């Protein structure tokens, strides 16, 4: 049985194992590895190594740091497929999708390669006679990144390259469900020239997370996961004096107006609803259709769903399994609930015949029509291949539905009416908006993040906000003394 160990001080940790968790291949249901779960002692050891490394790394010049970033970028780009295969084997998403997430993560590495420009401060000459002021941004020290199962490469890459480029040491706590991608990337960072200890991978569950949240030497926490844990991480981390950005769950709506191209809207709904088996924080899970086109749109979506293959992600199927048996059962339970609550089950994924091992965690694409806001399949984040169509009379009711939802991660409008799109952009209370784009994940040089229960804290990931999050500002006032500055004056300094 393969054992997945922590990565501490630039190498696999060899201490006594303690608690472990099984890691499965979701397409076969077989256990492929066990991952170590850190206790408080290992957290201390990992953070101590990171503290030691942080001091040397912040002193490394911008040129030295960016050379490592560029080298890591080359390695990651050249070995995308290798990392993609590791992701598919533990997460289940199809290979092309796994490589796609690495590519989106790579964009953040490329963004972070520009850190010398991003860290430039301001300078004001002559704010007072003979006095100049300039500002710098300095690293925080040791920062923690806690990531979810659904993007084992991309989500760590939202934060790690920016934090490292800015001169911090990072302790990454990946999901225990698919932990191998983090170790592989850590080995590649070392190969790229990153000094030992600057990146640590600490595996574990709540115990490891709590250890990081309360550790006095961890200065900031970037978390991505479900809303209840995001809220907990934000509250606990900030109560312990840390800077925290905690990205939570989602319920993303796609509003389709009557003038939209319904074929393109149906394509988009299927791709965004069932890609990665709906296990994306930017997946479309609620399709809000204006009544006059709802029948036609539902028919087009159902027609496309009939052509989707569900199976082993290594076999060229459209959609893979769910991540674990427990999650598959939970999502299937929502399908049962939707039926019991009276929604129209148009396509039932519970009967899927997978292309692959029957013991995989299968659930096929599922479509509900005539879902109402009171139903649990509408209210709760399902995080699986279940698309719910909610019918509304028009734009106003659609907008109200979206704005009344407690989540605010992503949303999309499909229309050919520029005026309606512009109004939607202005009025919708959601952090990331797509206009005829169903999964509007921002480019790396913008920042990723939602509103309301989809984000706790005030900083989004990567882009300018990411650089700001991983640095703190300092303003320096300078005067080079000459004899005219002498004399005693206890009054408050003013400018002359
Ligand atoms: P999760 O909240 O169960 O786990 C996330 C991380 O928290 C993992 O590292 C896990 O080990 C840790 N954790 C779990 N339970 C904990 C506890 N009780 N105390 C402390 N730490 C704990 O989330 P998940 O199931 O891995 O990921 C899916 C969720 O993540 C979905 O809700 C999805 O919407 C969300 N997500 C959000 C975004 C975003 O950008 N907003 C991106 C990806 C995923």
Automatic annotation (TrEMBL):
Residues 13-476 form the Aldehyde dehydrogenase domain. The lineage of its organism: Bacteria, Bacillati, Actinomycetota, Actinomycetes, Micrococcales. This is methylmalonate-semialdehyde dehydrogenase (CoA acylating). One of its GO terms (molecular function) is methylmalonate-semialdehyde dehydrogenase (acylating, NAD) activity. It comes from Actinotalea ferrariae CF5-4. SUPFAM superfamilies: ALDH-like. GO terms for biological process: L-valine catabolic process; thymine catabolic process. Its EC number is 1.2.1.27. It comes from the Bacteria. InterPro entries: Ald_DH/histidinol_DH, Ald_DH_C, Ald_DH_CS_CYS, Ald_DH_N, Aldehyde_DH_dom, MeMal-semiAld_DH. Pfam families: Aldedh. CDD domains: ALDH_F6_MMSDH (cd07085).
